[in-house]
Amino acid sequence: MASDSGWTDPLGGVPLLSARQVTPGERWILSAGFNVDAALTSTGRIDSELADLRRLSDAGARVAVLSHQGSHRDGTATALGHVAGHLSRRLDRQVRYVPENASDAAVRAAEALAPGEIAVFGNTRHHAGEERNDPELARRFALLGNAVAVGGFSKAHRAHASNTGVLRLLPGCAARSLEQEIRFLAPWARPPQGAFRAAVLGGRKPEKTLVGLVHAMHTCDLVVPGGVVLNTVLRARGHDLGASDLGSKPDACLEAVRGVLDAPAKARLHVPRTVWVAPVDEGRIVGEARPVAVVDGVSAGHAVVDFDLEPWAAESLAGAGSAVLAGTPSRYLDGQTRSADAVLSALSRTSGAALLLGGDTVAELPWPGPVSTGGGSALQLLATGTCAVLDALRDNARGARDDGPAPAPDDVMDGVST
Ligand SMILES: Nc1ncnc2c1ncn2[C@@H]1O[C@H](COP(=O)(O)OP(=O)(O)O)[C@@H](O)[C@H]1O
Ligand SMILES: O=C(OP(=O)(O)O)[C@H](O)COP(=O)(O)O
């Protein structure tokens, strides 16, 4: 979605692991983004690191894998043993799980790795300091190796201890996963001249509004909000929303949407006439969904769970030359599949390229076409041509080390996890 002129090679000045020699015995940290559920519903975020892990291991490197999953704040961070198991199977070699990552025991375990051995260390989000980009936590993580390969494209927009923090302490480079995702996204940043461009932005995370909607309104021809993005648009237009989900940053998103609605835009914004609402209890759907005219508003105790895609928008989407979908448009896993099915059906008919972005989005929606493992990070890259991690890698290549205040934990989201 970046304007054509705004996209210079995002990898410019970024050292690449693919261009590095690896010698036996070297101690590497691979910073990954294994933010997947324990059932391994969608393993793309793990599989994207396989090639580098195999190469490092085959070259005799000793590899400590450091990954985030879930969040410390809401208690969703879990152990990562299932990831080590998956890697063992896919790499056809034993990948050990070391549940800690910042203790003396973790450092000893990393130092004891044999040449060619890979171990997955504990979830970085067991620590509050990960998302705060705490320099002391980064210092502990940095003891797990002598150099860091930064993968985990899905967290490339976050300046956290395990990716940008460690880059202030160790020489670093971009892992192949990061390199490949960024090269893969170029066609959506630079679609063919004159192509009709569309963005469908749903889900729950604020980036879909703060980055995705704000940027897409100026670069796309059609924007279809769903999920919390739609709820925020309806709120900005003064509709009653009952108990609808407004996400973790409702005020910032409302302000951003008001700014978008008040300013001239390139895109036509789809606002449905009919939404589907259901009774909810603490966010859980507890009764049948029914259609409601948007103008009638949503009553107390009820939430928007889906919407009807207007026929004109379905036609426009089907004719798109370039399209992205970031964030599930509706509560798909709760059986609210109308808008998502209509959007996916239209996108499957496009002559151009349609791309799905993000963890839950890719895991939840049936889509045989192209996908990216990054949701917020891909939107950030498409909107600005860079991400926090790429900037940190460039600084690292210039020799900048631990010589100033740590960067803000999260340049777009003010450090607030979503
Ligand atoms: N109207 C809605 N109200 C609440 N949640 C919604 C709504 N529409 C979609 N969602 C939820 O959004 C979730 C995906 O959002 P998000 O985490 O932002 O995606 P991703 O992980 O791909 O970035 C889905 O699990 C879906 O249930
Ligand atoms: O799932 C992720 O991002 P996404 O939902 O934007 O695809 C990444 O793992 C980043 O996780 P975070 O949004 O908790 O920082």
From TrEMBL:
Reactions performed catalytically: (2R)-3-phosphoglycerate + ATP = (2R)-3-phospho-glyceroyl phosphate + ADP
Pathway entry: Carbohydrate degradation; glycolysis; pyruvate from D-glyceraldehyde 3-phosphate: step 2/5
Keywords: ATP-binding, Glycolysis, Kinase, Nucleotide-binding, Transferase
Assigned GO CC terms: cytosol
Entry keyword annotation includes Kinase: yes
Protein name in the entry: Phosphoglycerate kinase
Family indicated by similarity: Belongs to the phosphoglycerate kinase family.
Region forming the signal peptide: none
Molecular function, one GO term: phosphoglycerate kinase activity
Record EC number: 2.7.2.3
Annotated GO biological process: gluconeogenesis; glycolytic process
Keyword Transmembrane set for record: no
Domain of life: Bacteria
InterPro entries: Phosphoglycerate_kinase, Phosphoglycerate_kinase_N, Phosphoglycerate_kinase_sf
Top-level EC class: transferase
Residues covered by region (Disordered): 398-418
